[in-house]
Amino acid sequence: MFTTKFGKSGAVWLLSKETVLVIQISMLADVLRDDQFAIEQRFIIMFYCDDLFDHSVTGTMNYSRFLTAVSAARKPSPIRILTELQQRSPPTLISLAGGAPNPSTFPFQSVIITLKNGGSIKFDEASMNRALQYSGSYGIPELISWMKDLQRALHSPPTVAYAAEKGRMEMCVTTGSQEGLCKVFEMLINPGDNVLLDAPTYSGTLAALQPLGCNIINIASDHHGMIPEALRRVLSRWDPAEVRRPGSTVPRVLYTIPNGGNPTGASLTAERKREIYQLAREYDLLIVEDDPYYFLQFQKPWAPTFLSMDVDGRIIRMDSFSKILSSGLRIGFMTGPQTLVERVVLHIQASTMHTSTFTQLMVSKLLQDWGQDGFLRHVDSVVEFYRKQRDAMISSADRWLKDVAEWHTPTAGMFLWIKLKGISDTQKLIMEKALEKEVLLVPGGVFNIDSSLPCPYVRAAFSLSTPQQIDEAFKRLSALIKESL
Ligand SMILES: Cc1ncc(COP(=O)(O)O)c(C=O)c1O
């Protein structure tokens, strides 16, 4: 049986019940010229394919269903492709391609960065030339490869061995996870789309999401994060059968911060993650797992991640080095299905081109030197620091705030989320009176979808101040609350 009709974006062949071949339209001509392929055509049933990765045909994720028109329209920059090629070529390659400037004209000669452990990172003239030059948009190969090894070791993502079209795990470097988040939302969210998240949430996420004109639906949460039953209730407004109907309003994206939430300090339990993942399967949702506090978990073993459960290729995970290596270097990572990572990389190509080669090399040299064990030892020492800070904040809260506030002890991150008793909105209290008393916290309302609604919470960070300063701050806050009651 032979049916020949192609879709706009490509075609799907069913080679056998088990083997599916998905070809993008750009590659079609080459494939059809291939002799080997021509022979195999005898065994091929060709399917109509208006939708490149149609679930019903291939049994894989239909990623095109999730893309905005802007993202779907992004095309690789021919010059950037050459840069990637050059990056992977032997030094004997003579390239007259590209428009890279000549680094001999740059004023910087060499750099030695002294490490706190007494070691150093050296940039001689050759590595300096590389550090100061354009590089590929996915990130420098050795950093990406180091990070892929780390993801495999920490999360064993099921998608590592998948075929590309089935959602094979891919990674790219982003200029902080904020860049990744912003580009992921631009890739997935149209005006009017229903988007799920558990507010109060990171204000940077709201800042990236709200201008897209989407309808943010709040899923109730507690100190263990998003409540799966609440998610189920919200989703029950729709029939899972509607999901792929054109024009369906079923949400396609769920965002959450699984560990040490900003601002709540909440961490999802493994059980909740499994339930949420299951619901995501039922309703074909993508989950954006924004996890910059993953490495700041105070208990071991660390919680299993959504990425570790991702049998479908529906997780987009954002990691960040901001909390463990440096926030100013701006190094983050996106991990997800190749099809989606590629879309974000095309956006990077068209905007920043790549994260600073210098900072990538600096971090990469450090990581190569440390190895995974050295990196994880460093993470342990950072965790120890924040655990002590957290404990100091909790004991100061116990000392000064017991009668006037309530909180849950966070098991990760750097924030304590404090509910002030008898105060309906903390905005005025913090922005006016607290400043007079020389203590500053973040009024909780800024983390809500509608920041104008009254909110009785404040966020206190235990990252920067000394235990003595934290104690004094809570003493002042306690006096302030008592005066306001
Ligand atoms: C939940 C959350 N996501 C993302 C970010 C952005 O981090 P980065 O410095 O990696 O851009 C932050 C920063 O505080 C955050 O709290």
Automatic annotation (TrEMBL):
Residue span(s) of domain Aminotransferase class I/classII large: 117-477
Single GO MF descriptor: pyridoxal phosphate binding
Biological processes, Gene Ontology terms: alpha-amino acid metabolic process
InterPro entries assigned: Aminotransferase_I/II_large (IPR004839), Class-I_PLP-dep_aminotransf (IPR050859), PyrdxlP-dep_Trfase (IPR015424), PyrdxlP-dep_Trfase_major (IPR015421)
EC number: 2.6.1.39, 2.6.1.4, 2.6.1.63, 2.6.1.7
Catalytic activity: glyoxylate + L-phenylalanine = 3-phenylpyruvate + glycine; L-tryptophan + glyoxylate = indole-3-pyruvate + glycine; 3-phenylpyruvate + L-kynurenine = kynurenate + L-phenylalanine + H2O; L-2-aminoadipate + glyoxylate = 2-oxoadipate + glycine
Swiss-Prot/TrEMBL cofactor(s): pyridoxal 5'-phosphate
Pfam families, alphabetized: Aminotran_1_2
Keyword line: Aminotransferase, Pyridoxal phosphate, Transferase
GO terms under cellular component: mitochondrial matrix
Biological pathway: Amino-acid degradation; L-lysine degradation via saccharopine pathway; glutaryl-CoA from L-lysine: step 4/6
Family: Belongs to the class-I pyridoxal-phosphate-dependent aminotransferase family.
Biological role: Transaminase with broad substrate specificity. Has transaminase activity towards aminoadipate, kynurenine, methionine and glutamate. Shows activity also towards tryptophan, aspartate and hydroxykynurenine. Accepts a variety of oxo-acids as amino-group acceptors, with a preference for 2-oxoglutarate, 2-oxocaproic acid, phenylpyruvate and alpha-oxo-gamma-methiol butyric acid. Can also use glyoxylate as amino-group acceptor (in vitro).
Name assigned to this protein: Kynurenine/alpha-aminoadipate aminotransferase, mitochondrial
Organism, scientific name: Paramormyrops kingsleyae
